[in-house]
Amino acid sequence: MRRQERNVGVLSPDAIRRMAARPQSRTRRARLGFIGAGWWATTNHMPVLAARRDVEMVSVCGLDPAVLERCRRDFGFAHTTDDYRELLRQDLDGVVIATPHATHAAQALAALRAGCHVMVEKPFTTDAADARKIVALAARKGLHVVVPYGWNHRPIGLRARALMDRGSVGRIDYVLCHMASPVKNLFSGKSFDFTDTAYVPSSLSTWSDPRVSRGGYGQGQLSHATGLMLWLTGLRATSVFANLSNVGSRVDMYDAISVRFKGGAIGTVSGSATLPPGTPGSFQLDVRIFGDRGVLSLDIARDHLSLDTHDGRHEVVPLRKGDAAYRCDGPPHQFVELILGLTTENFSPGEAAMRSVEIIDTAYRSARSGRNERV
Fold first, then answer.
1. Do 369 and 220 lie in a common domain?
2. How many domains does the chain divide into?
3. Which of 75, 109, 181, 350 could hold 145 in an S-S bridge, CB 3.0 to 4.6 Å?
4. CA angle at residue 368 from 365 to 371, to 5 degrees?
5. Are 130 and 202 in contact (CB under 8 A)?
6. pLDDT per residue as tens digits for the range 314-342
């Protein structure tokens, strides 16, 4: 496969097997700080990382003193603050950034300047220029950037990447990426429907107030899907035309995006916030990659991965039930392993996230202008 600009993470042949047993250091501990103590940081990232023997939870920054005290008690933080600049003055190896979308860029750049590796929540940034600055600064300083794309670390994503690395579809000519989620109430600002498993409630404005979110479904959910698609393909957009629809919300609930990529490939990216709750699989995520040798198809809701080639090969890759279900323990584990030198593999690198931001940021510009926009 002739794949554009392959520096979007490298999957070694035995990576899938190694994911089953997470390595831990016996001689070092990664000293971590958290900027943001909202629902996802406290429900997912903190429990995963606090359970590792080779992690020291040094400092957490947030705006609610009661939540900070709970985090100190439950996850073992030694220090709490309401100012991320004070957090960055601590002795840290890495920083997890899980704050409202529009704040990611300034905080990530500050953490990198302080010499810290960073894991930045999705969307990586809301502005393509900021994403490029973060990736460039990290490269200059030799620091890791991880964006927690959970599906990239699941068996379906890893096996799809292995097939792509073998050149199974050949030259990429067209990609299709569709996602739908049961998040109508969240993006409408009415309610957070995942409170049963939340450590703290989500702030609805993070998702539904355009002044905070800088967009709706595109920023909050399509960043997942495009992060997977771009990591698999290595494609980079050159122009985008988009139609977005709010349907009574202050932010986009539906997204229809047409993309042209460097090298001549084209693609479509679509999304919907209105999948009915209780729909089997909970989320729809389909990625189909069409090349001159064949087609790779991923269907997350159905745990399905298949390869069909023009020379007569038709293969359904064996997956167990749940191998495509969303989990996000892989990225925080890999973040620590990168910091401690236990791995060199990054399945959700800043480079892929930057390319995702380039598509989504340009889609919002196109929707405002009504024109095809250059990235």
1. yes
2. 2
3. 350
4. 75
5. no
6. 999 999 999 999 999 999 999 999 999 99
